[in-house]
Amino acid sequence: MADDPKHQIRGNRMSLLLGYLAWAAMKLWSITLRYEVNGQKGIVAPEVGKDPVIFALWHNRIFTMPPIWRRTGGKNRSTVVLTSASKDGTTLATAMKMFGLGAIRGSSSRRAVSALIGMKKALKEGYDVCVTPDGPKGPRYEVQPGVIKIAQTCGVEIIPIHVRYSSAWRMKSWDRFVIPKPFSRVTVVFSEPHRIEKGISEEAFEQARTELEACLIDGSDDS
Length: 223
Description:
Number of strands: 9
Radius of gyration: 17 Å
Distance between the termini: 43 Å
Oligomer: single chain
């Protein structure tokens, strides 16, 4: 039975094991890649300061970012990643922990309220929050309004992250998950911040959402 405690323990152990394997795979894979990081706005630029921000990148680009996060300036900041409430989320949270990143459990479909509360709490405590605004189940390349609302409520900026590959495989999953081929070039661009003012109309809110979506799409190499 799905609610059998022994079944849950086995499931948790398997998710943890898969998380360690995912961490090892990403770390080893990153060694073969050539990274080029541009426009590190909001991470290492001295004029930006230490105010918390929301980093946003597409769900299918997450494979290559955690291994280099500290090298891009993340070592000077505290960052948590929004993961789903599923077993896959446990796997991802375990891998992120190995890279020195925290995790907030939740998603747009399960435990959404707790995820939003967790994100607000993390931002108020000074943590950056990294989200995949089209995750965890899509539609692909469509920004969900939750990230806009959180940025507006907490008064923080959203910094889009663009990740491009010179050569890559694309899986047949809903997001066409991208894995760069060994020895390929990975170009990472931290774009200019998006700020959503408080008290704006529904039309202006939707415009802010579509502008972030268009920015992230423009930074992709398969849009």
